[in-house]
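Researcher: Please predict.
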Amino acid sequence: MEPLTLEMLLERIRSKDDNARASARDDAGAVGAKAVAPLAKIAVEGEQEIARAANRAIQNIVYHAGRPGAESEAKAVAAELLALLGKDQPVQFHRDLLWMTWQIAGEVAVGPVAAKLNNPKLREDARMALEKLPGDNAVGALKAALPAAPDDFQPNLAH
């Protein structure tokens, strides 16, 4: 069987055939960072099952790139996730991006993730992502956000 190309992945993810979609989703990891943005477009615009498959394909890319010895792949995928995090996205997709970001990104993600602490709909997800990011900068971002945080969110940040 020939390797899955970006074009094949996108075609199969958009397929009405559940098996083709599932196979593409499961094999998306090897396609890599170049598939993240086009899959994100499908994830936010596609019909429910197609959108769900695209989102899970991105997750599989994150898992694949996060394997030991794949640091350059991880950096490339993290950069794609951070670019998406900076764009206007549906709330649930933003939450998914935050979750995927902490799984693969390093300190480079602290600023973009911390920026979401000001969004009442995303702040809890951003806080949890910062708690999982490595390095002192993530803790520093949480501390820096504490004085200006709304009263109901301060205990969460202090945690």
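Model: The CA atoms of residues 13 and 22 lie 8 Å apart.
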